[in-house]
Design brief:
heterodimer; A: alpha/beta; Rossmann fold; B: alpha/beta; 2 domains; 11 helices; Transketo_C/PFOR_II (chain B); pyruvate (chain B)
């Protein structure tokens, strides 16, 4: 606001220049994202798919010297059907619970052979928070040199939207037809307990923030983890052109906080800097998604309280008060 | 070099001599000494491998899969509950045509907790696409482990190999054995489908019903192709190092009227039973099945057959007996003996022959 205010008080010419420089800076940031595509236009993703949007930027940041390890998840389907593939990178498809362990072996083998190839697990929330958490915990604890990305669409979306440990309170899924009565599992706290060298959250709605974090993660040796919110139109029941809008609402409501934690130091990033101070009510996010059609007023209040508690906890961490 | 040690130690020394690049390790009785010995080799520098101390057997096979996918030599070891816990990854590793080598210390499954020898663990992995060899001495544990790498990595095979040694009866007994300098007996690994950054592709992508069966059939082609590779490998081993192995080992079978068939340590014990029976005037012989997968049907030529299974398929029968019957048409006297480390002596085995009733089943300790 301060910048805009001074611009308004400036001479017309100066005002124009300030806006132009801001625009240019934005352009330059975006231009840092390479044109090269590793996820080709032949995916079998649903319309408005956030997982493929995320994957596109993840692979742009990672570059060609990368292997993706993918457990059973939406991306098993998104990449296409044999003998074709929409991925222009080696993709190793593995069993549901095994991604992080496969990546462990792969990373050790590459390093033993003197190769710096990025090993990236790209897994859904079910494959991470539920069935894959043991392997993830083991790989993090062993200091595996890899990046684990959990794209979180908050349910078993690939099998048609069953509840997962990541499904939020009140959400209707095919296995919680009356709405989920339990809270979303705090995956980030679990991962943080392993002290990875780099940990970040991101959201499909903010590709630049996401890109920067993947790029930074891969520049650091050791275990890295990213948790990326993936608003899923068919699963969450919103129109497929609103994927980005839904991600932005989640961040603005403080339900999803963009941050990175490098060697234990937490930094709030991007749009979440503003959301740490002022947020839209959670109703603005919940009311536009069909999956929350059965959420009660008490549950909505509980969701709002969880947001306030989480923001307060993160702010204390930022301020160094724990 | 002549040395002495347990079956576990022999396996570990063979692994050291085969020089894998990645070893994934998770302890379980009675296999633990294998991964402990390998940890020592890696720590002291006699094996330049990456040692991954995984958090479960599911992950040990997963880590081997990830490593083998890049085209390097891999090894792990397990037993009993560990093996069945990694069952999913057993299918995945064979299906991905990765030449992983694993030692399995044969042990019973719970409940109740029993750490004694039993083949139910490995037999239940029968249909995964893994080759399975059963050994009977410490020397054979060493030799079979070395040969397993050459067989698995052969480009006609490209399937994982499991070396099975009876828990405690072989893993924990000490015998003298000779180690070798393998030299180029195990050629450098050259996995044709190893991950290549410069030639990216999808591995294990969605594979529809009009294609999936072709990959399944390819596994069977690899399995069948492994038979001549095993024969050639065992012949070459004999030529270089002087010890002879065959697809199955016969003992005094030429003029036998009755043959006893078993796998693992019982297959060695029964040679003494054959000698006892011969002294009594019974023309007995013994066939020790070494390879369970691929299954190689021995020549039985109308002889009476007594099969000892250290396993059982509930609702069916002894697995080895059933498979021999199906493949050869014989009507075996099927003895179920040695489950959970139940003691079976050569006198017991001789008695099985004396009381044989072809086409029937006998539970040792139950039906006596």
């Amino acid at each position: 606001m301060h910048g805009v205010a001074s611009a308004l008080h400036a001479e017309p010419n100066q005002y124009f220049i300030i806006i132009h420089v801001k625009y240019l800076k934005k352009r330059l940031d975006t231009m840092a994202i390479p044109d090269e595509e590793f996820l080709l236009k032949t995916t079998s993703a649903c319309a408005g798919c956030p997982s493929s949007l995320i994957l596109r930027y993840v692979t742009k940041a990672a570059g060609a010297d990368t292997v993706l390890v993918i457990p059973a998840c939406c991306t098993s389907v998104i990449q296409g059907v044999y003998p074709t593939t929409a991925m222009n990178l080696p993709v190793y498809n593995v069993a549901f619970a095994s991604a992080a362990a496969v990546a462990s072996g792969m990373s050790e083998a590459f390093r033993a052979e003197g190769k710096k190839t990025n090993v990236i697990c790209y897994a859904g929330d079910g494959g991470t928070i539920d069935i894959g958490i043991q392997a993830l915990s083991g790989a993090l604890e062993r200091g595996t040199d890899f990046l684990y990305i959990c794209y979180d669409n908050e349910a078993y979306s690939n099998t048609g939207m069953q509840r997962s440990g990541a499904t939020p309170l009140g959400a209707v899924t095919t296995t919680t037809p009356g709405g989920k009565k339990d809270h979303k599992k705090d995956l980030d706290a679990i991962v943080a307990a392993h002290n990875p060298v780099y940990q970040a959250t991101a959201c499909a709605a903010y590709p630049q923030d996401l890109y920067n974090k993947v790029e930074k993660a891969l520049s650091i040796p050791g275990p890295k983890f990213m948790h990326i919110l993936a608003p899923c139109p068919p699963g969450w029941r919103f129109p497929s052109e609103k994927t980005v809008e839904m991600g932005k609402l989640a961040v603005k409501a403080g339900l999803w906080v963009l941050y990175e934690r490098e060697n234990g130091k937490l930094t709030i990033t991007g749009a979440s800097k503003a959301a740490m101070k002022k947020r839209i009510p959670v109703e603005d996010y919940l009311s536009v998604q069909g999956r929350f059609r059965k959420i009660t007023a008490e549950e909505t209040a509980e969701v709002q309280k969880t947001v306030e508690d989480t923001i307060a906890r993160l702010q204390r961490e930022v301020d160094g008060i724990c | 070099m002549l040395t002495f040690g347990t079956g576990n130690k022999a396996v570990a020394m063979a692994v050291r001599d085969a020089k894998p690049v990645v070893v994934a390790a998770y302890p379980i009785t009675p296999q633990t000494e294998i991964v402990e010995e390998i940890a020592n080799f890696v720590t002291e520098g006699s094996l330049a491998a990456r040692y991954i101390p995984v958090e479960s057997e599911h992950s040990s096979m997963a880590a081997c899969i990830g490593a083998a996918a890049t085209g390097v030599r891999t090894f792990t070891a397990t037993s009993s509950h560990g093996l069945v816990y990694m069952c999913e990854m057993m299918h995945m590793s064979a299906g991905a045509r990765l030449p992983i080598v694993m030692a399995n210390a044969n042990r019973a499954l719970g409940p109740g907790w029993n750490i004694g020898a039993e083949h139910s663990d490995s037999i239940s992995m029968r249909d995964t696409g893994w080759l399975q060899v059963y050994v009977s001495t410490v020397q054979e544990a060493y030799d079979a482990t070395l040969m397993a790498f050459r067989i698995a990595e052969h480009t006609d095979v490209l399937l994982p190999v499991m070396i099975n040694l009876d828990g405690f009866l072989l893993t924990h007994i000490t015998q003298t054995f000779e180690t070798v300098e393998p030299g180029d007996f195990i050629p450098p690994i050259a996995t044709p489908h190893a991950i290549d950054i410069n030639n990216p592709g999808g591995y294990g992508t969605l594979t529809p019903g009009n294609t999936h069966f072709k990959f399944r059939h390819d596994i069977e082609r690899g399995m069948q192709a492994s038979i001549p590779v095993i024969v050639e490998t065992e012949a070459e081993f004999s030529r270089r190092f002087g010890r002879e192995y065959h697809l199955y080992e016969e003992y005094r079978c030429e003029d036998a009227d009755v043959v006893i068939i078993a796998m693992g340590t019982l297959g060695k014990e029964m040679e003494v039973a054959v000698d006892i029976l011969r002294e009594e005037g019974t023309r007995a012989g013994a066939i020790r099945m070494r390879w369970f997968r691929p299954f190689i049907t021995p020549e039985l030529n109308g002889k009476d057959v007594v099969v000892i299974d250290r396993d059982y398929s509930f609702g069916y029968g002894g697995v080895l007996a059933g498979e021999l019957q199906a493949k050869s048409g014989c009507q075996p006297f099927s003895v179920i003996a040695g489950l959970g480390g139940q003691e079976v002596t050569y006198d017991d085995i001789a008695e099985f022959v004396r009381i044989r009733r072809p086409g029937t089943e006998h539970w040792f300790g139950v039906d006596d």
